[in-house]
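Task: fold both queries, return tokens.
Query 1:
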Amino acid sequence: MVAVSGLTLLIGTVIVFVVSMLVGGLGNYISVRALSDNEVTFIHAVVSSVISAAVWAGLSYLLNVYLVTSVLIFGGALASLLVWIFVLYFRYSSGIVRAIPAAVFAWIIAVVALYIVATFTEFPFQAIGIPAV
């Protein structure tokens, strides 16, 4: 086993966080532009991704504290998807009818982008703020 310094871990964590937010923002940006009338910017989409990551982190903490861990396997993924839908609903004025397909489409885009990133780099196939990935 190779020892890794604290600085290396910090840099790696920051890189994974930045890539995750950019991939989540890309998914949000493309899906909202395609499925709604909103004029969204990429920065706005990345901020939405950061908000959903923060809300999901808080919800995950509460689920871990107050629920049995066997519920978290399916419940955690479902809760994170619902968080993403509600963040898109509140951040964009398209309504819940367009927020649901936008969230699903954004998730598909994020998974494809993460797969491409993981295939051609050494980054792991995971992201912060993207449900079940």
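Query 1 returned. Query 2:
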Amino acid sequence: MRETDRSTSERGSSLPLVLVCWLVAALMALGAVAASDAFLEQQEVQAVCDAAALAAANQADEAVVYTAGIDGGALPLTRAGAQAAVADSLATGGDELDSWSAETDGTEVTVRCTRQVDIAFGWLFLGGRPLERTAVAGARAPTVP
């Protein structure tokens, strides 16, 4: 008779454990979806930034090329030319960024792109705030063979 009393007193005690396990599994699944969404957004920002850097590296300073020629086999780049090429690339690409910058040392251009994105289940993991995705891309001006 004692064994039946014990089994009836512990009845239902596994329900909280099962609920906690399901809650943890659900949070892990939602976290995986949110992380993959953040990763895909990062890839998109990186692709936009790469394209802008390539466009800027192909924008040679024509005034220097026509007056002084090509010195050292690399096409000369200017900051103004790089920024104009990046702006054109971003305008024609249709992808909006929150901010970007382009810097050059004369032969290589570095472009930094930033976008605020809303990810899946961001309300749960970020408290409803957008996630900042930043990418940096660099490209060298083409060289003359």
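Both queries returned. Flag for query 2: The first helix runs from residue 2 to 9.
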